[in-house]
Design a protein that fits this description.
Bound molecules: adenosine monophosphate
CATH architecture of the largest domain: 3-Layer(aba) Sandwich
Largest sheet: 7 strands, parallel
Oligomer: single chain
Distance between the termini: 73 Å
CATH superfamily of the largest domain: P-loop containing nucleotide triphosphate hydrolases
Helix content: 40-55%
CATH class of the largest domain: Alpha Beta
């Protein structure tokens, strides 16, 4: 097993790494660190986000800083403010066992005067977004005389985001006595051109396959009519109760809309996009990081630099226009050795795009069905049952006799049914989950039901102790199936309404006619009259 000290790092850096809990170098570190600690050289390293590349350049950088010289010695260029801040924090962590290295993040959208003041106090490493760095260089606020290393982090993103001209200007401004370390997840021509134009015989290293998606991300897709996207999204979320995910949309507007809809439907979600001020973005990111919200709806640009390690899913609410964005989106999960799933919600006619993506990431997409309401219900009730089985009952031992009395006269099946129905009703009331709607079917004008659904009248209601859980059980029993999508349920005093998938109308009517029986009493179901 290779250790960090085998790579040539000093004892103090090895200590720092140990304190961070890094037991063994990651592949990119194993390859890059010995090169960067050795002779002064340029390097092009291809590695996905989340593969440990910050330490791959950060650890050698920490070793190279001359402590007695309080001048900028390294510039790290990164595409977003978040990434600059993260890098600065990582560098501080890597150098925690030695004399402090003055590290500063500079980025646009924040007071330049404050940044100038911080620069004047003396810094040794600067992590910067290109626009702001150029501005500071042009104002003569950065002493470039001692700069010996330039790091381009997420170079493909830098170029994707339109920083090409700024980068050219930065390279043209700096005195030519530095090495360039370029890190990129992919190698489009624009990145290759930068390497050709500004780098000197760079050493090349690749971790994983070129342009390939991270190995521990599996890719799935489902197809929907565009009108059904949102319902499909909700089903996916409901089907994975522990989901901690970024949901990608293509536009700011959609990002905002989807987040608002999710919040309206009771999910812990929020949006991050370019219309937000920096402090608003920080606020959302903070909530996401500490898991106050578990779903973050984001545009591609706003999500760059987000480095949350334990995302379970990335959801492509809309597939991205360019294939490389997909690599970046999906690379937000499956980080730091953990596994993750990237799901694409595609239109039927986008299957060709899926095939192209498969070629880009060199992995197959698995086709999955949109989970049905029954799938979701089964899963949620299954989890509920597990939780019930694992519940610690010691705290209620003393009141058990009284509780038993409350359930007296009921057999085991009845008690279970009551408990499940109670839990289910509470859940449905808070989540208000609606059924999937078929894109092709128009609104049922006749009785106001949802598109694709028929509205039924049934002659039992609250007075008969009917509740949504027992009604669903009754429908399934009477129709001898568990596959019917049940929609809105209105329980009234002595009767009720329910909506169900139109395709099952005959089955429901004949099912109740032949087997409809509630507590020993025949029940009558018919299509609801106009409202
Ligand atoms: P990065 O690709 O630099 O964003 O790193 C991804 C994550 O992996 C970060 O949370 C790092 O703290 C973590 N990490 C980096 N190197 C190691 C290592 N050798 N062992 C364990 N975790 C690491």
């Amino acid at each position: 097993m290779t250790t960090f000290s085998d790579l040539g790092l000093s004892a103090s850096t090895t200590d720092a790494v140990q304190q961070l809990g890094f037991e063994q170098p990651m592949p990119i570190q194993e390859q890059a660190i010995p090169i960067l600690l050795g002779n002064h050289t340029d390097i092009v390293a291809l590695a996905q986000t989340g593969t440990g590349k910050t330490a791959a350049f950060g650890l050698p950088l920490v070793e190279r800083i001359e402590h007695s010289l309080n001048l900028p010695q390294a510039l790290i260029l990164a595409p977003t403010r978040e990434l600059c801040i993260q890098i600065t924090k990582d560098i501080k962590d890597f150098s925690r066992t030695r004399q402090q290295i003055n590290t500063l993040a500079v980025y646009g959208g924040s007071s330049i005067n404050k940044q100038i003041k911080a620069l004047n106090r003396g810094v040794q490493i600067i992590a910067a977004t290109p626009g702001r760095l150029l501005d500071l260089l042009r104002r003569g606020k950065i002493d470039t005389s001692a700069i010996s290393t330039i790091v381009l982090d997420e170079a493909d993103e830098l170029l994707n985001m339109g920083f090409q001209q700024d980068l050219n200007a930065i390279f043209d401004t700096l005195p030519k006595h530095y090495n360039t370390w370029l890190f990129s997840a992919t190698m489009p021509n624009s990145v290759a051109n930068i390497a050709k134009r500004y780098m000197n015989n760079p050493k090349k290293i690749t971790v994983g396959t070129k342009n390939a998606g991270a190995d521990n991300v599996s890719h799935q897709y489902l197809t929907v009519h565009p009108q059904d996207r949102y319902t499909a999204l909700k089903r996916l979320i409901d089907f994975h109760p522990d989901m901690y995910a970024i949901i990608f949309c293509r536009t700011r507007r959609n990002t905002r809309n989807i987040a608002e809809k999710l919040m309206g439907d009771g999910y812990t979600a929020d949006a991050i996009h370019g219309d937000l001020s920096q402090s608003q973005r920080d606020h959302v990111m903070g909530k996401f990081r500490n898991k106050t919200i578990r779903l973050m709806v984001a545009t591609d640009v706003a999500s760059r630099g987000i480095d949350v390690n334990d995302l379970t899913h990335v959801i492509n609410y809309e597939l991205p226009d360019d294939l490389e964005s997909y690599t970046h989106r999906s690379g937000r999960t499956g980080r730091a050795g953990k596994s993750g799933v990237s799901i694409g919600i595609a239109k039927h006619k986008e299957k060709g795009k899926i095939r192209k993506l498969e070629k880009t990431i060199k992995q197959k997409f698995e086709y999955i069905d949109v989970p049905t309401a029954t799938d979701v219900r089964k899963k949620q009730l299954g989890e509920w049952t597990d939780n019930v089985m694992n519940a610690d009952t010691s705290a209620i031992d003393d009141i058990m006799p009284a509780i038993k009395q409350g359930f007296e006269g009921m057999n085991q099946d009845e008690i279970i049914a009551k408990l499940v129905a109670y839990a289910w009703n509470k859940k449905s009331n808070t989540e208000q989950s609606k059924p999937a709607q078929s894109a092709s079917q128009p609104q049922n004008i006749k009785n106001g039901s949802e598109p694709g659904f028929e509205r039924f009248f049934i002659n039992v209601g609250r007075k008969d102790d009917l509740n949504p859980g027992s009604l669903i059980a009754l429908i399934n029993e009477s129709c001898r199936t568990g596959d019917i999508n049940i929609g809105k349920i209105d329980i009234m005093g002595s009767f009720s309404f329910f909506e169900a998938d139109m395709n099952f109308t005959d089955k429901i009517l004949s099912g109740f006619q032949n087997h409809g029986n509630y507590r020993g009493r025949g029940v009558n179901v018919e299509i609801a009259k106009p409202k």
